[in-house]
Amino acid sequence: MAKIAFVMWPAMGHLNPTLKLARKLQQSGHRVSYLGLSSLEKYVLSQGFEFYTVLPETSDFDQLMKIGVSKPGAQITQALSRIQPDLLIIDEFLRVLAVLAGKIGIPSMFVSTKLNEHPLNTSNVVSGDSVSGSPTLVLCPAVFDFPYLAGQKGRHYVEASIDLKRSEALPFP
Question: Scanning 19, 30, 62, 172, which has the fewest C-beta atoms within 10 Å of its C-beta?
């Protein structure tokens, strides 16, 4: 089966909604992993998924979002080259990563953990590359979305994204 990697914005509100989808993919025989900041490693491992640290510090992550291809961009590209996922599922907020993955031949798609469409931030597009045609998985039923978005080409609704089987390794603040 396929090797699928998730890269999510480093916040529980972005990570937790993907766990149900990741678990279903894993139960279907796919090898599922997450890539992210070192601070998320313990939590992701407690959920039963592989984890690869691609950036050690939040400041590196913030720098990636500002300038795209930089030292953090190179670190992520090296990690992706080493891991070689068959598919990269990227948080909609991290569109720049689709550009980096595309440059080394790794297909990607987006996942949205919210209802409204996040506009493409053109500062995250590198030298004319575009990611606007990539499909997006929306982690909620279509009936809850805005009517003008629900019928958009490339927008696919998965289902409610609450994983009742997730491990609560971190205390709720």
Answer: 172
pTM of the complete model: 0.80
How would CATH label the architecture of 3-157?
3-Layer(aba) Sandwich (3.40)
The SS3 call for residue 140 is coil
Domain ranges of the chain: 3-157
Tens of each residue's pLDDT in the chain, 173 residues: 999 999 998 888 889 899 999 999 999 999 999 998 888 899 999 999 999 988 666 555 666 655 554 666 777 888 888 889 999 999 988 887 888 888 889 999 999 887 765 444 433 343 334 455 688 888 888 888 777 776 778 888 887 677 767 776 556 56
The secondary element (H helix, E strand) that includes residue 89 is strand 87-91
- The residues near 152 (Cβ < 8 Å, ≥ 6 apart) are 117
